[in-house]
Amino acid sequence: MIGERLRWARMKRRYTQEQLYELSGVSVQDINRYENDKSGIKADKLKLLASALNVSSDYLLGLTDNPTPPDLASSLSMLEAEVITKMRREEYLDVIQAMTDKIRNHA
Fewest beta carbons less than 10 Å away: which of 14, 40, 55, 96? Predict the structure, then answer.
C-alpha cells in the first residue's frame, strides 16, 4: 500500500524519482524500493517523503484516505511560520536571530 500511495503522490506532482530525491534527501534507490514494495520504510524517511510530497504520513501508511496533511499554518503565529520556513531552508542563524529578537521584545 505504501508503494502505491507514494508513487501516486509523486506522479501527481509530476516529480521523477530523482526530483523527489533532491527534495527529500531519500535516495533514488530507496524511493524505487518503497514504490515497488521491495523494502519497508523507516519513520525518518517516511517523514521526509511525506513532507516533500505535501501529503500526510498517515496517508502513505494507509491510515487515512485523505492525502492532505492537517493544516497547521492557520494556527501558527507569524514567528512560528517564519522559524519553520527558515528551518526548512537550513537558515539556522536566522532562526536563532528571530528567536533572540522575540526574547528581547518580551523582556
Answer: 14
